[in-house]
Amino acid sequence: MSKTSLTFLATLLVVATASGTSPERYLHVRVSNPTTHELVRVNLPLSLAEKVIPAINHGQLQNGKVMIGHFSADSVDLKQILDALKTAPEAEFVTVQDKDENVRVAKERGQLVVRVNDAGGKENVSVTVPWTVAEALTSNAQDDQLNIAAGIKALESIGDTTLVTVMDHDESVRVWIDSNSGDSAGTK
After folding, report:
1. 144-160: average pLDDT
2. Cβ distance 164 to 150 under 8 Å?
3. What DSSP string describes 72-138?
4. 113: closest CA among 160, 165, 70?
5. Which of 67, 26, 65 lies closest to 49, judged by CA?
6. Which of 166, 131, 156, 169 is nearest to 29 (CA)?
7. Does residue 95 contact residue 110 with C-beta atoms inside 8 Å?
């Protein structure tokens, strides 16, 4: 092989490797309160969060895992339940309707979805958890812990998605994942 051919192949390899690298993923949090004119924006690279979370040992957060209070899972295998839900068909599992609020828990598009709507329309909460993230949160954790570090790592592999929205009469909260370093998607 000639030097020119080797140089061309080396250049192709570098370009192919560079183009195969996935872009940095960001965790975004946006809290807006139009009444007080307060706006909080957090745009955190997941790679940074993945390194920092295990380094924080304060209160309920220790070694990348968070204690979830007085949660009791005696005689309940949370991982087995998650596996059963993952393999279950897409469906609406729980619906609660009363005079104050409507609650819905379902499996949609391969994700666990929880919706809570205030009957008066004052507060709406939407939480979407991809299965890979739910499984990661329970990996290498005790029954009363969530593995936040593993959950963040799992977020790197999901597509652009909104995880949490909260809307009430005073403020709105949105938490989402994408490849934008700013919160340009925060206005959606």
Report:
1. 89
2. no
3. --TT--HHHHHHHHHHSPSEEEEEEE-SSEEEEEEEETTEEEEEEEETTSSEEEEEEEEHHHHHHHH
4. 165
5. 26
6. 166
7. no
Encode pLDDT of 71-114 as tens digits: 555 566 666 777 788 888 999 999 999 988 999 999 998 889 99
User: What pLDDT, on a 0 to 100 scale, did the predictor assign at position 71?
Assistant: 53
Considering the chain, what percentage of its residues have pLDDT values greater than 90? 40
Collect all residues with Cβ–Cβ distance below 8 Å to 105 and sequence separation of at least 6: 92, 93, 94, 95, 112, 113, 114
Q: Which tokens go with 178?
A: 């994408």
User: What average pLDDT is seen over the chain?
Assistant: 81
pTM of the model: 0.74
Nearest 5°: the CA angle 39, 128, 138 is 110
What's the number of CA atoms in the CB half-sphere (13 Å) around residue 136?
18
Q: Please report, to the nearest 10 degrees, the dihedral formed by the alpha carbons of residues 74, 75, 79, 82 taken in order.
A: -100
Count the alpha carbons within 13 Å of 138 in the hemisphere toward its beta carbon.
Answer: 15
Sole residue written with tokens 């977020």: 155
DSSP-derived secondary structure letter, 50: H
**How many Å is the maximal CA-CA distance in the chain?**
79
